[in-house]
Amino acid sequence: MKKRMVMMGECMVEMYQLVENVYHQSFAGDVFNTAVYLKRSCEQPVDVQFFTAVGTDLISDKLVRAVKREKLDTQLMLRAKGARPGLYMINTDAYGERSFVYWRETSAARQVMQCFASQSSVEQLLGADMFYFSGISLAILSDADRRALFDLIHQLKAHGSQVVFDPNYRPALWSSQDACRAAFTEAYQLADIAMPGLDDHKVLFEHSTVVEVQAFLQQLDVAEIIVKDGKNGVVGTYLDEGFAAPAHQVKKVVDTTAAGDSFNGGYLAARLAGVAPEDAVKYAARLAAFVVEHTGAIVNKEHFQRFWSRHRPSTFIS
Ligand code: ADP
Questions:
Q1: What is the count of structural domains for the chain?
Q2: Catalytic residue at 143?
Q3: Which residue's CA lies nearest to atom 23 of ligand 1?
Q4: What residues pair up with 98 in beta bridges, in sequence order?
Q5: Residue ranges of the Carbohydrate kinase PfkB domain (predicted)?
Q6: What is the pTM of this model?
Q7: Which residues line ligand 1 (CB under 6 A)?
Q8: Listed residue (65, 114, 55, 52) closest to 85, CA to CA
Q9: Which of 15, 71, 84, 290 has the fewest Cβ atoms surrounding its Cβ within 10 A?
Q10: CB of 201 within 8 A of CB of 211?
């Protein structure tokens, strides 16, 4: 039977500066990026559902169409009346340094749990093979909505869904480090697969090496752990068996946006294809290396297709 993955997060309007005062508009967000690379990487048909709230305006309609164009299922893209999607601008200075400005304080995605309570039900999610969420999915919710989300995940887990969590720590989105630490710890305790970056843990948990992060997550009983450390590669553990994988060498890094997101999507696609964790990280690293050689979060479909036809996940089985 076709597998079903539910990916919960926020997709925003992205404005990318081409030249002074001229912007290219697209859509991006950590979980959305992961969902796109997961769907594109799968060798078998898989139902990837994007779970979020958008508004009822024209740009929200455009966002839903963009998600559909990626062949993601949009049934769980709920509508928050009168709200609008979040937006961010990427500006590049004369030295190529990028800076981000966000307008997301009142974004529709923050209302996802309220929309879920009034427009959907647990039954719609039961039976999903996987539920994926990130620290950003948690950060944008009120305390009460975060609690409702944890309760929902508990129910899905009790019905057999595999839970995947990437903390993607963004200090600006949290009221305090304590609140964030508590939420991440609870998320890890629910997770079957954890995919943090070392940087996420450095400030928050004072871990300075990937091995420390790994040990911390093993104590929390996470069965499958992948700790990412940029160009230094990853270390992983699956049912207490450890492995490591270097990053794939890149001729020229153009833009590291979505390196971790694409890595996660690629890893999960490979796992779905029956690839073991120590080989799945190789496909994921190859995909992330391809993504950092291109501008923007989502590489265009034709380029991706050329990459995928040479490097399908199953070709990484050793
Ligand atoms: P996150 O943003 O989740 O912390 P990372 O920055 O650690 O993710 O990157 C995820 C993966 O992307 C790395 O494990 C590596 O495989 C790949 N990657 C990131 N930066 C580079 C780079 N400069 N060269 C090659 N691969 C990279």
A1: 1
A2: no
A3: 231
A4: 92
A5: 4-300
A6: 0.97
A7: 197, 199, 228-231, 233-234, 247-248, 250, 253, 256, 259-260, 263, 285, 288-289, 292
A8: 55
A9: 71
A10: no
